[in-house]
Amino acid sequence: MIPNVDGHNTEALERAILEAKADKTRPTLICCKTTIGMGSPNKAGTHDVHGAPLGADEIAAARAHIGWNHPPFEIPADVYAAWNGKPRGEVFETNWNRRFETYQTAFPAEAAEFKRRMAGELPADWAAKSATAIAEIAAKAENIATRKASQNAIGAFAPLLPELIGGSADLAGSNLTLWKGSKGVSKNEGGNYLYYGVREFGMTAIANGLSLHGGLIPYTATFLVFSDYARNAIRMAALMKQRQIMVYTHDSIGLGEDGPTHQPVEHVSSLRIIPNVDVWRTADATETAVAWAAAIERQDGPSVLALSRQNLPTITAGIGTDTIRRGGYVLADAANAKAVLIATGSEVKLALDAQKALADAGIAVRVVSMPNANAFDRQDKDYRESVLPRGIPRVAVEAGVSSFWFKYVGLEGSVIGIDRFGESAPAGKLFEFFGFTVDNVVATVKRVI
Q: Which residues have C-beta within 8 Å of that of residue 308, sequence separation ≥ 6?
């Protein structure tokens, strides 16, 4: 630690930085002492300079106090020259370009690969090979947790993408973000997986930096409830439109006995409303693989994958990849449907079971799976209305807060959700306790038709 550095003295700052750089064995904390509003003769050291302009009189006084006699927006020649990095930067850039030209001549294939990655482009065979991988996952029709389906998708896609770099906030074994080719980055060796420790914000911020640098596609992971700790960095990823994939597992009350502190009832909805964020809450292995492919391909913002702890059955047999990519689609239709059931994630199977029970009672309903409401909202009006026709009552089913879903069901529809914190009990008991049952879905549909 270097204490008591005058934060207003550039020479003192430079000395401290050089001292820190000289220590090659450990990080250094430089503690700078500063005065808020330094230079303002009447307001320095007070809260008055924190959130309000100085005002014309105090600006004039500050100019006199520090001896600044130049008009607004005029940069003195000596100051400009001292801070102008363009000539030096041009030398560096010219030298680098010359070196790269030499490298490109000697190693054309490697140079082309470098340029591809830095441009953010996917390999030429990505579309074909990723489609094959998704088809193979769909053919297996495994009844597994979507966190496990995510791991399978990583295992299928990562060998195609040497630029993919993962990591987890000390939960790799639970998030299932390791694959057989994972290699931890260490002090002495490179790799493709970062063990961040329990630092969700730092993890997400570092991944933002990796994405901004270019040439890498980062993915991060923690429990969905811990996304709260990363919120500022998630927002910055969205604001900067950076390609980052955030794997958030244990996505609902299905987490079970860990109780309400770990049951993220509000998190999926809160993430959906952040501009530029795509949130996928998938219902089976195929939807999960499609979500991964879409997140990898997306270059204008981050993607969140909200994944289950508990096993989920296959529900997408016969559904095409392009259909799932649209974010919301008709999963199971019925002639002369009297209502539409909209569901996500683990609740899609419940909607299908309720559809059957309603059919047995002579009531036809359509089931819509909506793994990515953000993507669905980007579809054209005709497509959206083909999925959610006007004039047909709608019921949304999701194990989370209900308010988000009224944009789809309207005031005349209904939402089966959770508008309180959870409880500690086995997952099955919790779903029953909170009304995620066929009987409750059936009764709700009957009330709205």
A: 145, 146, 147, 249, 250, 251, 252, 254, 345, 346
pLDDT by position in tens, the chain (length 449) = 999 999 999 999 999 999 999 999 999 999 999 999 999 999 999 999 998 899 999 999 999 999 999 999 999 999 999 999 999 999 999 999 999 999 999 999 999 999 999 999 999 999 999 999 999 999 999 999 999 999 999 999 999 999 999 999 999 999 999 999 999 999 899 999 999 999 999 999 999 999 999 999 999 999 999 999 999 999 999 999 999 999 999 999 999 999 999 999 999 999 999 999 999 999 999 999 999 999 999 999 999 999 999 999 999 999 999 999 999 999 999 999 999 999 999 999 999 999 999 999 999 999 999 999 999 999 999 999 999 999 999 999 999 999 999 999 999 999 999 999 999 999 999 999 999 999 999 999 999 99
**Catalytic residue at 200?**
yes
**DSSP state letter for 176:** T
pTM exceeds cut of 0.85: yes
CA 367 to chain centre: 27
Number of other CB atoms surrounding residue 195 within 10 Å: 14
Tell me the C-alpha distance between 351 and 403, whole Å.
19
3-state secondary structure at position 378 = coil
The one-letter amino acid code at 176 reads L
List 58, 200, 287, 347, catalytic entry: 200
Q: Which amino acid is at 219?
A: Y
